[in-house]
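Holo prediction. Input below; ligand is acetyl coenzyme *A.
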Amino acid sequence: MSGKKFSLQNGETGESLELPVRSGTVGPDVVDIRSLYGEQGVFTYDPGFASTASCESKITFIDGGKGVLMYRGYPIEQLAQRSSFIEVAFLLLYGELPNAEELEAFEQSIRTHTMINETMLRLFNGFHHDAHPMAMVAGVVGSMSAFYHDTTDIQDQRHRDIFAHRIIAKIPTIAAAAYKHAVGQPFTYPRNELNYAANLLHMFFAVPAEDYEVDPVAAEAIDLLFTLHADHEQNCSTSTVRLAGSSGANPYSAIAAGIAALWGPAHGGANEAVLTMLQEIGSVDQIEKYVAKAKDRDDPFRLMGFGHRVYKNFDPRATIIREACHRVLAKLGRTDTPLFDLALRLEEIALKDEYFIEKKLYPNVDFYSGIIYRALGLPTSMFTVMFAIARTVGWVSHWREMIIDPEGRIGRPRQLYSGPVQRDYVPISQR
Ligand code: ACO
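Structure of the complex:
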């Protein structure tokens, strides 16, 4: 506790209550309201949790006003420029950057756990060819609890480590199997000599009929996008993983719940929605029309990839990805980039518009990520799957932190009940 207090006064009784205030290392203080219901018989009301800290965490910090994002204290700009996704995964999981030996051992462990139980591959045959890959990936990751139940004693640290390595290593394999099922190609087995991003590209794009060489530019781009997507503190899907896991549920099921939450267009599904939107807008002369639609209260249309619950100035990940778009498209030799040009122009117009300025709506991480994924040859329906692969590292890190949190309890919010008061059952003949 910080020693600071926050007082609340009950307007009816005049009674006041001193609540302890807790300070983090950075960021706003939090008022500890745990005694509120016991002492005053009232709940707090905060739908969407805009003012509620659901847990204490040491993993990721965001200052939405200043556009700051740090993993374990390291600014995202430095990690994006100097680190790799696997190193970032170690950092998020274990709290510190690895030394050379630790990094090698971790990378080796991830590389050698990439195969999945062969029976799992058969599950894909049960899906229709046009099933959305997110549906397949959520289902098959959930099924892992039926395959790997030997190491899910969540109180055992070794089991937790094995779970972490397994899911991080295997989720690209599951994602690639979903892709291959969707395009009707045979599954490509992982290659342990390749690094995380290169192996993913190999599993997606190699076919038995010819040799496939991973393009280092593509692998580098995937690595960067995964680094940027790896964690984002208590977002919707991470909170879902924590909540599902708080009951002591099998951790693979908790990750499957996170994947399901990520799929929504207000969250990770936005990268797919941005591309669909840009294609629908089609040309620069249509932008004004769509901006007007986004501003119209009677029209449900929103500019996808714009706005964020926390960032009210800019999303630092979007800034990095916008620059990466220029670089990657140029390196891939794409000179004709109509969708990227359209996105740049849309951003420019929206950022000058009073509506977007007043509501502090800026491009978020998903505004540009799909443009890179598309340039790498991935179909739009796989974009959110890519996000899920990267965010698995964050989900697992938060799940691990939650499991050993001495203050951790099952997540169980309360409510403001506004349904009928007690009434008597009416027999069906009298209704
Ligand atoms: N286009 C037009 N108007 C918008 C947009 C948008 N993209 N985003 C928010 N607004 C408006 C809302 O209509 C609302 O206006 P009002 O105050 O007049 O009612 C105001 O801005 C605040 O919006 P909320 O929905 O209350 O903000 P919230 O913090 O709950 O939602 C969210 C944030 C979901 C990201 C929202 O901005 C949105 O829907 N954006 C588009 C989807 C998207 O890009 N999601 C990805 C987020 S990043 C991620 O999860 C990886």
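The chain has 18 helices and six strands. That is the main takeaway for now.
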